[in-house]
Amino acid sequence: MAASVFCCLRCCRDSATGHIPLKEMPAVQLDTQHMGIWGVGVATQKVNLNQIPLGRDVHSLVVRNDGALYHNNEEKNRLPANSLPQEGDVVGVTYDHVELNVYLNGKNMHCPASGIRGTVYPVVYVDDSAILDCQFSEFYHTPPPGFEKILFEQQIF
């Protein structure tokens, strides 16, 4: 399933990637409605959305449901053991074109990951009955300074 980025996207099955390249410093928040296998992060257009979990190649950088941040099949960082997302938690992600940072219920987890190159897009995937409510604007928690909702690129003629 490929989907466009909406203000609120409920991801209940398979993978979704936005069709809008990230030009600004965006923030994304997930409300974990039903736990299962899931991940959120950024990916290039070359990512294989049928290969779950993402983070196995150079085309995606994601935080997974187990708290690990993966890129190129390498664990780049991990959430603190006492801070793994539980059902009902809000997981926030920011990306500044270098580092992906993770927030749990509005608190910075201080476990950045980097390594992906090129034009990237927001990506979310679920499996094993996971349900995530994805917010790309009107966040539950205020994003850190310098980050805001995903802005859609516009062409002026």
Record keyword descriptors for this entry.
157 residues; mainly beta; Jelly Rolls; 7-stranded antiparallel beta sheet; 6-stranded antiparallel beta sheet; 13 strands; 0% helix; globular; disordered N terminus
The biggest sheet, with number of strands, parallel, antiparallel or mixed sense and barrel status, is: 7 strands, antiparallel
CATH architecture: Sandwich
Give the N-terminus to C-terminus distance in angstroms.
33 Å
Give the SSE string.
Answer: EEEEEEEEEEEEE
DSSP strand content: 35-45%
Arithmetic mean pLDDT: 79
* Unreliable parts: 1-14, 19-25
Shape: globular
The helix tally amounts to 0
Total count of domains: 1
Structural class assignment: mainly beta
Radius of gyration: 14 Å
CATH topology title: Jelly Rolls
Q: Can you tell me the CATH superfamily? A: SPRY domain
Q: Estimate the helix proportion, in percent.
A: under 10%
* E-strand count: 13
What is the C-level CATH assignment? Mainly Beta
